[in-house]
Amino acid sequence: AQTVTQSQPEMSVQEAETVTLSCTYDTSESDYYLFWYKQPPSRQMILVIRQEAYKQQNATENRFSVNFQKAAKSFSLKISDSQLGDAAMYFCAYNTDKLIFGTGTRLQVFP
Amino acid sequence: DTEVTQTPKHLVMGMTNKKSLKCEQHMGHRAMYWYKQKAKKPPELMFVYSYEKLSINESVPSRFSPECPNSSLLNLHLHALQPEDSALYLCASSQKPGGLAGGTTGELFFGEGSRLTVL
Questions:
Q1: Which residues pair with A74 in a beta bridge?
Q2: Which of B42, B98, B115 sits opposite A97 (nearest CB)?
Q3: What are phi and psi of A92, to 5 degrees?
Q4: pLDDT digits (tens, 9 = 90+) for A51-83
Q5: What does the alpha-carbon distance between residue B22 and residue B35 come to, in Å, rounded to a whole number?
Q6: Rg of chain A on CA atoms, in Å
Q7: How far is CA A27 from the centre of its chain?
């Protein structure tokens, strides 16, 4: 069965600094997609970044980038130049016929 | 239009009430989803509709009854709920069901959710 694990329930970072959120997953599939979703207090789940498993190049979206290690089944999210608006719950997710979420990491950003 | 719209945003109901949650998208997506989310927990899948037909029911109690009248609308009918059903209910849609197997990324677009309180 596919599982997604986020081992950091909470993380904190100072404004303008860099933080990395960890995610590991388990699957027997060779092709799949991985996602990081952000859920601020406003509640709406927003896609942060997407990674295609068959692409070796790590995805990047502005200040957000991933470190995708397929063999290790690891998919971490790096947030550079952290901003107050980055404070939220971050969920790692794996897609098969349905989206499987990790348990989430609450990110606090301090001025 | 890349929005998924959910109404109402907040709902308070008694255990004997009948109410409905509504979800609408106009992105031409053919898969729609209901998730239940408790505080500080990830969303839990309840139902998946593929091409307006129920394809996945994650063993949800019958007091929750989904309906997909057309490709743009998804309802969740609520009846005889329990206080433990209080949660945030999220609707989502995706281009096609099945993710990679369906030829898409499987990215889900979420609404803002309906906060349900059962008294």
A1: A24, A69
A2: B98
A3: -85, 145
A4: 988 888 999 999 999 999 999 999 999 999 999
A5: 13
A6: 13
A7: 17
Output the CA torsion A57→A58→A60→A66 (10° steps): 180
Question: Rounded to an integer, what distance in angstroms lies between the CA atom of residue B101 and that of residue B53?
Answer: 18
Distances (CA, A) of B6 to A10, A32, A104, B10: 29, 29, 23, 10
Express each pLDDT in A29-49 by its tens digit: 888 889 999 999 878 899 999
Q: Which of A35, A43, A101 sits opposite B107 (nearest CB)?
A: A35
DSSP state of B57: E
How many Å apart are CA B76 and CA B23, to the nearest integer? 8
Amino acid at A110: F
Please give, rounded to a whole number of angstroms, the shortest distance from the CA of A50 to a CA of chain B.
Answer: 8
The sign of the dihedral angle between the CA atoms of B84, B112, B7, B99 is negative
**In this structure, what DSSP letter does residue B39 have?**
T
